[in-house]
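Example record used in the benchmark description.
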Amino acid sequence: MRDEWEHAHTDYTVPAQRRSPASLADSEGDWRDYLEHSTPNGWLIRNGAMTEALVSGKPLYLLHVTRGIDAIRTSREIHVSAGCLVGALYCSPLTSQRKGLRPHNLGTYLMRTKPSTTPLVLEVTPDAPIPPKGIDYLHLGAIHLRTYLRYQNFLTPAEAAQLDRGLLANLHTAAAFLNVALRNATGHATAVTDFIDQLSHAVRAVPFLGYLYFEVLSEYLMLHSTTPETKTYAQAGELNNWLYKKLAFAAVEGMSQLFDLARFDPRHHRLVKLVEGIEPALAPGVGEYVRRRLSHLLAQTALHPSQDAASVTFEGTDLGTMRRAAPGLIGQMIYREIRYMDRYQQLYHCFEKAKALEAWDYWNSEGIPTPFNGVIPKGEIGINPAYPRSAVRVWTAQRDSKGYLHPGEEITAVLTPHLASWWAPPRQRETYNAADEIRVDRPR
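Model output (structure tokens):
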């Protein structure tokens, strides 16, 4: 169990250490070297301001925005959410300067686009320098699968059979693309346009592919951008989060209200146009980057490290075989498909709290009071509500005319290891509003 959590974390200040399936054309170390040293902003992966703040051991100042300030005042509790940070309070960094607390560009985005929320300043005083190990939700598939298998008897036989039928049908629908992606990951290149068009179609059967697709494009834009805005953020030690937000909102109708990556599926022509609209110089290379990077990440996140990527096939196989060969993919599919069940609102805590408890235990043993989204250290950072060795203070935030935040009213409230309740209309698709303490659903 601990090995799975270690596998799902990344420390970008040390060489890549994850085990990988055999026959991959590029290792994780090859990609890390390319991303860090061959892209304009790659130096921020290892030396960004957030990483420096973590390892300093000094108090951290974080921004959280909430719709529930009255409930927090009344209950004197702050609940956390599941999602990319598993069970942490979703925040973005603040930098203490003479003029006040300067928000990270992600925090500026959150406050500008969510005017009905209340910004909070949280001060976290750690007991020691914090290991810069980020949780990579793309690598959580094996944990999702293990958790489901442990608690599958919470489902009725009919529900379990329905889930298995849905998984198998979706695997068969996407099998041709999954095999194409593995061929690309092992060095057998296919045409870029066909690859991305097949990817777009496969997202409908395997929503996890939409998450991979989006994260690959976010990485591409943030690391390769050379706009004046991006350069300004880089000087402050930050990757430019506005780039992928613009991409998501342009690609999917209604994305600005509910962030639903299960619907992120632009075809090749549309993808090139989207990137042209954000930063024209990056459009010519985007398709090839997606082909290579997504193929590699799919093999890394889907397959068990003991597998040979050149030998695995998704066509004509059964669920038992796939659970052994591709536990990461099956776990990610279960994690999303199970939410379509009418009764999942009642079952939510059974599955999500089990993973949160394990995450909190891992973070506590590693000395991590503030886990961050380690797909890439772009500024999504959380607070571990079960950490016993750090102090947390909370204030409402006042924003001045220059954009700096200043602590206002101190809130008498504590972070509690309690997941905020799930609310979802039945039979509708998952989405996660990461800036708040709620989970919501939206039709695809």
